[in-house]
Amino acid sequence: MNVSLEANGFIDEILKLTELQEMKVAMKNNVLAGFFVGVTTLCGGLFFGPLGIAIGSTFGGCTASYVLRGTFKSVPQIIKEDLTPEQRKKLAASVQELCSTHNIQTALQLALYLKDDKALLLMVIQLIKTFLESELAVKTIESCTLPSSKA
């Protein structure tokens, strides 16, 4: 496969995708946080009745939120900050391979195609989601929505 694509150019174009900026992934400790909120809600309800449920869940939710701040990151933030140079090259190679099947040779062409080709956009997003789940063992918590096409 003779592809004349610059890896950084592809990564830069991918980082510009609004759909990826809206996707967030859980980095760690989410099950523990849910368990903590459940326990504080249960304890509040047992000790103080219906008002205790509200107090316990509020306390548990606020505490879990404070403890877990910064553990949810956007996909572009993960690509910029958490991927090693080798992983970035591997991601770029995967995107380049996908682009070569659509006869896209440059990052500029990729940017132009992504604006108009929703199927290609979905393939790129799925590729990145799969890559992050396999390479970093993260889980997507917000799925992206594509802008509706105007008739």
From TrEMBL:
What InterPro entries has UniProt attached to this entry?
Answer: C19orf12
Stretches that traverse the bilayer: 31-55
Q: Which Pfam families match?
A: C19orf12 (PF20721)
Where would one find the signal peptide in this protein? none
Keywords, comma-separated and alphabetical: Membrane, Transmembrane, Transmembrane helix
Query: In this entry, which stretches build a coiled coil?
Result: none
Q: Which family does it belong to?
A: Belongs to the C19orf12 family.
Q: What is this protein identified as?
A: Protein C19orf12 homolog
Organism of derivation: Cephus cinctus
Q: Gene of origin?
A: LOC107269165
